[in-house]
Amino acid sequence: MTLDELGKVASGTGLPVYASKQLADWLYKKRVTSINEMTNIAAAKRLALEKEFEVGAASPVESVKSEDGTTKYLYPVASGSFVETVYIPADDRATVCVSSQVGCKMSCIFCMTGKQGFTADLTANEMLNQIQSLPESASLTNIVFMGMGEPLDNTDELLKVLDILTSPYGYNWSPKRITVSTIGAKGLKRFLDESTCHLAVSLHSPYPAERLSIMPAEKAFPIHKTIAMVKEYDFSHQRRVSFEYIVFKGLNDTIRHAIDLADLLRGIPCRVNLIRYHTVPDIPLESADMKRMETFRDVLNTRGTVCTIRTSRGEDIFAACGMLSTKKDIFVH
Q1: Which class is domain 3-52?
Q2: Catalytic (active site) residue 321
Q3: In the chain, is it the N or the C terminus that has fewer CB atoms within a 10 Å radius of its CB?
Q4: pLDDT in tens, 61-89
Q5: Of residues 37, 67, 84, 197, which has the active-site annotation?
Q6: Domain boundaries in the chain?
């Protein structure tokens, strides 16, 4: 709950107005797991709160660790399903990759989550729980909403989470440490207007017809409209925008693709992240080899678009980009 919502809880329970800040302090600073731990609230009031509410903290039920140190966690959610969350440690940072939905409506053909369809939106609680109940939570330096689902297809709950994460009453994180990934969905304008967190756009082809062939959502959310909207906002200072580009062998990996991608993004201060395709069962796509990706990168850089090749993490435990799933019985050990 946001501070305003906690205020309504407080008044509805007969607590003073300032109790909303006490509740927020217990939840987001002290990180209690039960209402009974809120010891500066009268016992009778705690009992009244417990009749209607719960903290909602839930530890992961399973985990698996990669050879590269990445750890994937399985969290239960209210729909009776599960979601996967990935912890990615590095020399100078520790990142958690958060899921926003059980499954996904976008149906990208290269994504394991998309292949499984959509089950439910996650609540703000279920998204925050992936961060707060993460065993390595205290070491986190960055949060990315790049797990299962399309975050901006669940805009109301996502924006509530971002408010709690970045507000002084909540976790007080800098928006510069939080990135939201999207294909360019319906909630993009609200996100750009109501948050200052970083944006990552899943692009994967500069050509609408080709993008549509691998990303059916291109029909509803055309990449040219997304690019036009991004150009209306200032990404030249603290806020950053990046474009994610999975490089598929023989599909979107030519020099012409790189040239036209640079032209498409001209005028946007941004970075392009090239991503190796991680094989998904029953999908007849292959990743371009490293030499091809390096050539692609160099063309973009020489044409003024900053481009890097992202290091893959957690592929051996199906934790890399596009490999997260929804079902407990296919969790990889």
Answers
A1: mainly alpha
A2: yes
A3: C
A4: 999 999 999 999 999 998 789 999 999 99
A5: 84
A6: 3-52, 62-330
